[in-house]
Amino acid sequence: MQIGPSSFMQEMQKLQGELSPSMGIEPQPLRQVGNTSGADFASLLANAVGHVNELQQSSSSLATRLDMGDTRVTLSDTVIAREKASVAFEATVQVRNKLVEAYKEIMSMPV
After folding, report:
1. pLDDT tens per residue, range 8-55
2. What is the CB neighbour count within 10 angstroms for residue 73?
3. 3-state SS string over the chain?
4. Which keywords does this Swiss-Prot/TrEMBL entry list (predicted)?
């Protein structure tokens, strides 16, 4: 069975029509994705990595300021910044692992 973008959209619209407010579910309008080129994904990935880098630099800066005795920086702010950077980094590593796994799976497919 081949599922194309138009048949998928028709199926989603059909399902949207079956939803009723009495079910407690308000249908949301469907949005068309206009551009799905690889360049957008690359820029999105670059922005995400840049954001993780900013979080790590901010965390490092706060830790340095706390160590130097800056009274405007609290220990709780420093720990929170460190944890945010840690969570963002771990999420980035997990995304990378999933991308590598998907790449390996695609490369092992028979032609």
Report:
1. 666 666 665 655 555 455 555 555 555 555 568 788 888 989 999 999
2. 18
3. CCCCHHHHHHHHHHHHHHCCHHHCCCCCCCCCCCCCCHHHHHHHHHHHHHHHHHHHHHHHHHHHHHHCCCCCCCHHHHHHHHHHHHHHHHHHHHHHHHHHHHHHHHHCCCC
4. Bacterial flagellum, Cell projection, Cilium, Flagellum
